[in-house]
């Protein structure tokens, strides 16, 4: 017979919440708000620190005052009670001096008489006087109470001291119930030497008045401390507000100034330090406004000058171009020197015309007049067309130009004219600086962006030059002989074209390892880029770096 095992599954019990979840959530929310206010508000920090320090100071002061008052009141009561106990012990010793035996039959009545007389000398009617002797009944007053408080476990300590000593007065403070409820009492005890067995004499004195005085003093000190702490916090808040308010006004004014509202100023009241700060801030804002207006005017004049010069040079350039074309077409009839001059004139006119075109384009970017004519475009033929256009230059420079594009269409909402101009600049620079080594143009796409990388293996870029290459008229090596006669504005215009699309134009380079430029554009016009389909650093360069540090690329 087969017996299947029985599996018992124990369900894990969740621990019960000691604190309700709603309370815990409120505490966390309050703590988060307090932390945020602590980080952001100077006034909140000052008030909080003032409140904490003043609370600690007032707490220490209140504890010291309450302790001094309590000790003073208790010390006075103990001294007064000691004098009373000493007098009572002397009286009892005189009255009981005739008894020499502990079992004398007249001792108990005498003890009761002595207790009655001693109670009469006590000013407090709620007190109790007790006399005890070994082997005999206790004598105590008032008689109406049953038993004696000296049987309470709290007073065993003082009884041990009194029994073990033949002289001396001992005291103990205990919370006892002798008929009127629990109260604090001062228990005073001493030994009265009568015969071979000393008699114990105890005074149980209520501390109701002294305890009430101490509690009243503590309540007064506590209330005064709370009021003082609240008053200090209020004063700190008011004084901090006097300083923080102008600072907040200055911060808001600075934010408006940074937003372009250059006419914003602070209100100056009085002649104190804050007023001088506001006046200095207003003076700084006025100076900045004048400088910004001046710079804007100079920039406007510069842009207008560049645009006007570029436009005005068009007419003489056209005339010179016509004359140069005529000379260039007839150069075969000239002597070699004149023919070479006609060729140089034609080449420089081409470069000059390109420079004027780039200057006009830069002036439109500076003036904010550049417009994007975005339309769905297949970038595969655009990249191939750029490769075909620059293939003669690559053959002249003995550079192998490879174009790597997907087999399918790569559709993106771009301005094809601007994208083609960017790619011509990037590929032309790569061929120019390729040092006869291959140049690879790669196109890739993902769900949100398209990217084109242009990789050369020439001289490369030094550290920091990947940012400088986009500056106007910047050249890495001015001594290099150019093949294309560039104007020095190509990469600057390319960067502006990329920004106009909402894209990125980035550069990477290393000495002796070549350079790579990456153009990344959003697939849909107006989208925000978060990543690129292609890496900026080439795979071969990453492999070399990984090999140097002994890691897998």
Automatic annotation (TrEMBL):
<dbReference type="InterPro" id="IPR036097">
    <property type="entry name" value="HisK_dim/P_sf"/>
</dbReference>
<keyword id="KW-1133">Transmembrane helix</keyword>
<feature type="domain" description="Histidine kinase">
    <location>
        <begin position="308"/>
        <end position="525"/>
    </location>
</feature>
<keyword id="KW-0472">Membrane</keyword>
<dbReference type="InterPro" id="IPR003594">
    <property type="entry name" value="HATPase_dom"/>
</dbReference>
<dbReference type="GO" id="GO:0005886">
    <property type="term" value="C:plasma membrane"/>
</dbReference>
<keyword id="KW-0547">Nucleotide-binding</keyword>
<keyword id="KW-0418">Kinase</keyword>
<protein>
    <recommendedName>
        <fullName>Sensor histidine kinase MtrB</fullName>
        <ecNumber>2.7.13.3</ecNumber>
    </recommendedName>
</protein>
<keyword id="KW-0812">Transmembrane</keyword>
<dbReference type="InterPro" id="IPR005467">
    <property type="entry name" value="His_kinase_dom"/>
</dbReference>
<keyword id="KW-0597">Phosphoprotein</keyword>
<keyword id="KW-0808">Transferase</keyword>
<dbReference type="InterPro" id="IPR003661">
    <property type="entry name" value="HisK_dim/P_dom"/>
</dbReference>
<feature type="transmembrane region" description="Helical">
    <location>
        <begin position="216"/>
        <end position="238"/>
    </location>
</feature>
<dbReference type="InterPro" id="IPR004358">
    <property type="entry name" value="Sig_transdc_His_kin-like_C"/>
</dbReference>
<keyword id="KW-0902">Two-component regulatory system</keyword>
<dbReference type="InterPro" id="IPR036890">
    <property type="entry name" value="HATPase_C_sf"/>
</dbReference>
<dbReference type="Pfam" id="PF00672">
    <property type="entry name" value="HAMP"/>
</dbReference>
<dbReference type="InterPro" id="IPR003660">
    <property type="entry name" value="HAMP_dom"/>
</dbReference>
<feature type="domain" description="HAMP">
    <location>
        <begin position="241"/>
        <end position="293"/>
    </location>
</feature>
<dbReference type="Pfam" id="PF00512">
    <property type="entry name" value="HisKA"/>
</dbReference>
<dbReference type="GO" id="GO:0005524">
    <property type="term" value="F:ATP binding"/>
</dbReference>
<dbReference type="Pfam" id="PF02518">
    <property type="entry name" value="HATPase_c"/>
</dbReference>
<keyword id="KW-1003">Cell membrane</keyword>
<dbReference type="InterPro" id="IPR047669">
    <property type="entry name" value="MtrAB_MtrB"/>
</dbReference>
<keyword id="KW-0067">ATP-binding</keyword>
<dbReference type="GO" id="GO:0000155">
    <property type="term" value="F:phosphorelay sensor kinase activity"/>
</dbReference>
């Amino acid at each position: 017979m087969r017996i299947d095992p029985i599996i018992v599954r124990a369900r894990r019990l969740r621990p019960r919440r000691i604190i309700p979840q709603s309370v815990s959530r409120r505490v966390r929310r309050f703590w988060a708000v307090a932390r945020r206010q602590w980080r952001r508000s100077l006034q909140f920090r000052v008030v909080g620190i003032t409140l904490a320090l003043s609370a600690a100071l007032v707490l220490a002061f209140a504890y010291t005052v309450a302790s001094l008052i309590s000790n003073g009141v208790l010390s006075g009561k103990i001294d007064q009670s000691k004098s009373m106990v000493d007098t009572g012990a002397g009286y009892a010793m005189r009255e009981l001096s005739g008894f020499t035996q502990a079992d004398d039959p007249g001792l108990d009545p005498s003890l009761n008489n002595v207790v009655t007389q001693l109670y009469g000398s006590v000013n407090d009617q709620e007190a109790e006087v007790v006399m005890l002797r070994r082997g005999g009944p206790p004598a105590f007053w008032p008689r109406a109470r049953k038993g004696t408080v000296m049987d309470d476990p709290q007073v065993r300590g003082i009884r041990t001291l009194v029994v073990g000593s033949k002289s001396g007065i001992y005291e103990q403070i205990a919370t006892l119930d002798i008929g009127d409820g629990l109260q604090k009492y001062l228990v005073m005890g001493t030994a009265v030497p009568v015969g071979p067995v000393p008699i114990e004499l105890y005074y149980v004195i209520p501390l109701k008045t002294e305890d009430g005085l101490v509690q009243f003093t503590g309540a007064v000190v506590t209330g005064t401390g709370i009021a003082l702490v609240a008053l200090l916090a209020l004063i700190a808040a008011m004084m901090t507000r006097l300083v923080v308010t102008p600072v907040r006004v200055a911060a808001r004014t600075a934010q408006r100034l940074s937003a372009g509202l250059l006419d914003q100023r602070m209100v100056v009241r009085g002649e104190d330090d804050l007023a001088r700060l506001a006046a200095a801030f207003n003076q700084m804002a006025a100076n900045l406004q004048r400088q910004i207006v001046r710079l804007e005017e100079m920039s406007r004049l510069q842009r207008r000058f560049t645009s006007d010069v570029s436009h005005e040079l068009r007419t003489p350039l056209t005339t010179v171009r016509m004359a140069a074309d005529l000379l260039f077409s007839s150069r075969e009839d000239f002597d070699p020197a004149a023919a070479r001059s006609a060729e140089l004139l034609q080449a420089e006119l081409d470069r000059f015309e390109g420079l004027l075109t780039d200057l006009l384009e830069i002036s439109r970017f500076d003036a904010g007049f550049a417009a994007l004519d975005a339309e769905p475009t297949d970038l595969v033929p655009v990249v191939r067309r750029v490769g075909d256009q620059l293939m003669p230059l690559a053959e002249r420079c003995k550079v192998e130009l490879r174009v790597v594009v997907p087999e399918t269409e790569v559709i993106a909402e771009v301005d094809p004219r601007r994208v083609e101009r960017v790619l011509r600049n990037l590929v032309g620079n790569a061929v120019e600086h390729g040092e006869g080594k291959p140049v690879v143009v790669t196109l890739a796409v993902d769900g949100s962006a398209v990217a084109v990388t242009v990789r050369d293996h020439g001289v490369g870029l030094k550290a920091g030059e990947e940012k400088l290459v986009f500056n106007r008229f910047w050249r890495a090596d001015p001594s290099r002989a150019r093949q294309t006669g560039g104007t020095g504005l190509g990469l600057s215009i390319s960067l502006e074209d990329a920004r106009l699309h909402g894209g990125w134009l980035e550069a990477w380079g290393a000495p002796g390892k070549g350079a790579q430029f990456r153009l990344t554009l959003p697939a849909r016009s107006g989208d925000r880029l978060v990543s690129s389909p292609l890496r900026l650093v080439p795979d071969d360069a990453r492999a070399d770096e990984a090999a140097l540090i002994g890691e897998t690329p």
